[in-house]
Batch of 2 targets.
Target 1
Amino acid sequence: MSQPLASMTGYARATGAAGTVAFSCEMKSVNGRGLDMRMRLAPGLDPIEGEIRRRIGAAVTRGSLTVTINVDREGATGEVVVNQQALKAVLTAMDDLSRRLDARRPSLDGILGLKGVLDQKEKSLPPEEEEALQAAILDCVEQCLVGLVDARRREGVQLSAVLGRHIDEIERLTRKAEAHPSRDRAVVLERLRSQVAELVANGAGVSEERMAQEALLLATRADIREELDRLVAHIANARQLLSAGGPVGRKLDFLSQEFNREANTLCSKSNAVDLTSIGLDLKAAIDQLREQVQNIE
């Protein structure tokens, strides 16, 4: 059964809550040579980072992903503690200044209001609640991942249609090159006869045997049968990959390089301006194909 074609570009967001703790997960993906994951996790989530990476790796094969998980514990009861080291430093400074200056000592609320004297710490959850929170966050990650995969596949459907049109254009130009009259050996021979006639008119002598040899050589050099056959095979292969779907981006990229190689050879062998023009149009269509292939997973 064929799989949907997927783009490497997508975005998804999911939210959730466990008790009084709320959290959110965002995933963004763009083109990448392989699978690259960047994690931006809220404090305390290190124990589940490996599981998050494993789940993403099971669902996505290529792309540069950024995963951001925020946790809001404001609903959970926290505690305010005095930073004893900072307080001691403040009191020492006050004692030192009071011996040198005649000034009123600051009030308690003024001292506690100094930066660093009071620390607000999140109250740690009991082990069973922390475990439940991590499980809920993983469920949120899974929901976000499903959304990301769906977004990438929706764009993949659009890309598949675009790629199909480019392949149709490559096939049209290939058929046009195959039907071009300059490929006929009789045409090549006639051209050579015309060139020989000019030489004879200028006093140079060329035997019929030599002319036949030169005609054969010229026709062989201008023969693009192999290039056309390979282009036809590549077209069939490309359509088969699009039909199969799944992570075929690397194969399509390699195939687009093969397309380009055959088009270059066709242009170099061309013995007519019109055929060269077809070859250049073919190269342009292949470049458009390859540009879109870079987005495929």
Target 2
Amino acid sequence: MNEAFQEERMIRLRWACRRTLQVLDRPLGEFLKDCYHNLNLSEQFAFERLLSAKDQEILDWIIGNRESGDAGIRAIAEQIRVYNDRVTEGHSHE
């Protein structure tokens, strides 16, 4: 992908990470900033599919109250959960 396209895609994704449910803004935004570039293409697409869901569904998937019927979304929600737990633990020890 060319650089301009990639830059535009990241801008779109940053906006998509901004949610009505503010509790999701930080986990999604931080995951995008710190982890997205390390995901393979199918994981990136799964993250984008996750972002197209309703806020409450995303929250339920990330905190583990429900599972998506989409295996890719289940896997990416688990990665977000693990990443967020690790980041949150790091902040609590400061």
